[in-house]
Amino acid sequence: xxxxxxxxxxxxxxxxxxxxxxxxxxxxxxxxxxxxxxxxxxxxxxxxxxxxxxxxxxxxxxxxxxxxxxxxxxxxxxxxxxxxxxxxxxxxxxxxxxxxxxxxxxxxxxxxxxxxxxxxxxxxxxxxxxxxxxxxxxxxxxxxxxxxxxxxxxxxxxxxxxxxxxxxxx
Length: 170
Prior knowledge:
Layout: E1 3-4, E2 7-8, H1 9-23, E3 25-31, E4 37-43, E5 46-47, E6 53-58, H2 62-69, E7 72-79, E8 84-95, H3 98-104, E9 122-137, H4 141-154, E10 161-167
Parallel strand pairs: 1-10, 2-10
Antiparallel strand pairs: 3-4, 3-7, 5-6, 6-9, 7-8, 8-9, 9-10
């Protein structure tokens, strides 16, 4: 059995940043008008010092319309190769904040927004976490693999996992 380690405040924010920015792509889940879960891959631009997640999005996208109807979203991150997993539930908001666009902009974003930072379809989506949970390894991938191999040989579980709640002040 792995270890449970709940984190709060700055330690929780550091874990959110480490996992989300390290994995980068998440499944960004919203609720459709039919109350179905809609999920699409999104690149995390940043997790800020308050634990907010930032994304670029197209103004007329289905995702933005769904957020306007129901601002509750879920972000699901998975890096199977390194055994890093994160799920975040939160409240999403959409803006065209010029300062935030300038701060987050990088040249690779131009592939989706060919007119650059001045693209009229460019918006930023902020997700403020309400609750989050993570699964990780204590000692990294190599030690985890060695412990799995040892468990297979000995028949004794040697879980190197750690998991817990991440609580960020709302």
